[in-house]
Amino acid sequence: MRIRSILIVSFIFSFLSCSNEDITYEPVPQPLEIPQIFSDNIIAPVIPNDNPQTAEGVALGKKLFFDTILSSNNTQACASCHSPQNAFTDITPTSVGIDGIFGTRNSMPLFNLAWNYNERFNWDGTALSLERQAEEPVENPIELHSNWDNVISRLQLDSEYPELFKLAFKTSTITKELTTKAIAQFERTLISANSKFDRYSLGEATLTPQELNGLDVFLREDKGDCFHCHGNPNNPLWTDNLFHNNGLDSAFTDLGLGSTTGDPNDNGKFRSPSLRNLAYTAPYMHDGRFSTLDEVINHYSEGLQNSSTIDPLMKQISQGGVQLSQDDKADLKAFLLTLSDPSFINNSEFQN
Amino acid sequence: MNSTIFKHYVYFFNIKITALVLLIGLGFSSCSEDLDDNLTPTIQITFKFTHHWDNEPVTNSSLNILQFTNANGELLSIERLRYIISGIRFTNSANESFLLDSYNLVDLTSNKGLSYTVQTEIPEDTYSVSFTFGLNNEDNSENYVDLNSESFNVPDMMGGGYHYMQFDGKFINTNSEEQGFNYHAIRAVDNAGTDPTSPQDTFFTVNLGTITVLNRTEIEVKMNIAEWFTNPNLWDLNEFNQMLMPNSAAQIMIYENGQSVFSLGEVTQ
């Protein structure tokens, strides 16, 4: 009889505990909406198995992305240097942190990040996943200048965040890992695939003769030869996401990938940025040295600097570059601007 | 026999019947596999791609160093090497062929695609084995999302399709300066522009010779990189270094020199 009573009580307890588990909220899966121009042409995006996209995770990530709580003095958020109006970069050559100190690198624009198949992020490839990329700026002394212990404490004491983490990750115990997972989920939703050129590729728009000639300059190996590093109509990312020395300097003050790998053969190499949304992402290059697209085109045409690690794809280095005519330069610029996507920077889902 | 003992008897009887049925099932199943094995034993085949400069092995740790001298006497480095092989064909003595309608991108630079296990298993036999360097014209007109993702395309105004090979590096030119070269193999094209034409095919078949496949088999395919510069065309990098894609004469020379680049290495089973 006594044993039977114990069994009955145990059963009730186990039922109650099951009941508690049962009422735990399940985040709603929210797979990326893959644009046709991508699904037709390139392989699927990279979504980590341990961080699937969910509606609650994305919403939390968006709130965190725009929240100054990540900085030590509550003055800056991720969005301070990655503004939606600038395709998630900013307008200064290098970015200023919470203490008014400028860094050494141009803020990278953020879009189509889930299609970086090699998963090396930042100009120098230091971050080996999008989640890890979100870790560093919080503690960087010339960026948000905080530390994760403080950030987690403040999030944990906040009136909203514990519940939002519970909805997104089924726990109200906030960690650095969950915080960066949420930010990465939001960043993966930043998809840009509705430029004039995208619509042209889908047969929904026409290019002007100047834009078409610019595409020809871009693709011809004996003219611009831009396509080997920056994609082509069949690779709508418009980047190879690999690291190249594109002849900016004959001596390096910033080693780029070399500072990450320690290999001198990687000195002066930086990740190829996408050519999408160039209309909104000036200034250009890893240090923002070029204010205009004209300066960028002039660099490849006449301004190349030789060095031991310059990419062999750079041509006619002894003459400074590929020597484009003024007409070809203007046409190339016109084509490049067709890769900009106003619907991306105006997407209400990406605004604060 | 009391009821408890009877229940146990029924229980064990049921287990015995179940076990017997399972054993009979397993027996049939294994007999069936044996029968299949006797008729068409199939072998998993893996191709292993190795690279050499004449007799010296070349790996991605050999890259970026001016250390190779070509037949024309130019000191050079290799910075990037990737190429497509496709259309692997096994032909037996009865002239029956197994054609694998697939391709593999070999990328020495990033150590990808150096080992390629074919998806179709081949019956035990002795075969003449061949593959296509690059893609034949029909395959080259398809849209491959993985190759697009690698930015391996050839622009439409240069004939479209895909590179057969990207081989980039630097050499010391006649002015004793380092200069880049882009030894890129594509389908030869004339009249680059809106209406390109192809003077001749520049993909080619590589015959590896006769191979007996008995068990799980690994076939080494060796590329002697030096041969790209050697014969029948003594390659002068000072003359042919960059912008070779729209140069059909250069493409045909690459095609000709490629004939002696590949050879069969070790076959292990």
Could you describe the 3D structure shown?
Chain B: Residues 44-234 form the Copper-binding protein MbnP-like domain. Chain B: This is Copper-binding protein MbnP-like domain-containing protein. Chain B: InterPro entries: MbnP-like_dom. Chain A: One of its GO terms (molecular function) is electron transfer activity. Chain A: Heme c 1 binds at residues 78, 81-82. The complex is a heterodimer of chains A (352) and B (269). With 352 residues, chain A is an all-alpha fold. Chain A has two domains: 36-191, Cytochrome Bc1 Complex, Chain D, domain 2; 196-344, Cytochrome Bc1 Complex, Chain D, domain 2 (Orthogonal Bundle). In chain A, 38% of the residues lie in helices and 1% in strands. Chain A has 16 helices and two strands. In chain A, strands 1-2 form a two-stranded antiparallel ribbon. In chain A, helix 11 crosses helix 15 (326-337). The longest helix of chain A has 21 residues, at 2-22. Mean pLDDT of chain A is 94; it is low at 9-22. With 269 residues, chain B is of the alpha+beta class. Chain B folds into two domains: 1-39; 41-268, no CATH class. In chain B, 21% of the residues lie in helices and 36% in strands. Chain B has four helices and 14 strands. Chain B has helices at residues 3-39, 137-140, 145-149, 248-258; strands at residues 42-43, 45-53, 56-58, 68-69, 75-92, 97-107, 115-117, 122-123, 125-133, 165-172, 178-182, 204-213, 217-224, 262-268. In chain B, strands 4, 5, 6, 9, 10, 11 and 12 form a seven-stranded antiparallel beta sheet that branches. In chain B, strands 2, 3, 7, 13 and 14 form a five-stranded mixed beta sheet that branches. In chain B, strand 10 (165-172) and strand 11 (178-182) form a beta hairpin. Residues 1-38 of chain B have low confidence and may be disordered. Classes of the chains: A mainly alpha (352), B alpha+beta (269). The interface between A and B is medium-sized, with 33 and 33 residues.
